[in-house]
Amino acid sequence: MTSEEAAQITAHLERIETMVRETNGRVRDIELWRARLQGVAATSRILWMVAGGTITAIVIAMVTRGTA
């Protein structure tokens, strides 16, 4: 192996290391977005349950008071 070939291999390895670092950063960003979306979905489900409970309570109150 000549010194030129060794330098070329070293340059390729450095490029591969850079690409791996960039990919790992992107994967981390995607995982953070996924976690945020899961949090939003959980919050949305809780809000829908609260709204459903509130509407049910209003309907029950109207029925028991005879206003429905």
Task: Please provide a brief summary of the model.
By secondary structure, the chain is mainly α.
Q: From the alpha carbons, calculate the radius of gyration and give it in angstroms.
A: 29 Å
Structural class: mainly alpha
Q: How would a textbook summarize the main sheet?
A: none
Compute the number of strand runs: 0
- Helix fraction, binned, reads over 70%
Net shape: rod-shaped
- Mean pLDDT across all residues, rounded? 90
Count every helix, treating DSSP H or I runs of 4 or more residues as helices.
1
Distance between the termini: 91 Å
The topology string of helices and strands comes to H
Approximately what portion of the residues adopt beta-strand conformation?
A: under 5%
Stretches where pLDDT is under 50 for at least 5 consecutive residues are none
Describe the structure in your own words:
The protein starts with a helix and ends with a helix. The radius of gyration is 29 Å and the shape is rod-shaped. The protein has 68 residues and is mostly helical. The protein is built from 1 helix and no strands. The mean pLDDT is 90.
Task: Using brief descriptors, characterize the structure shown.
1 helix, 93% helix, 68 residues, mainly alpha
Please specify the SSE layout and strand pairing.
Blueprint: H1 3-65
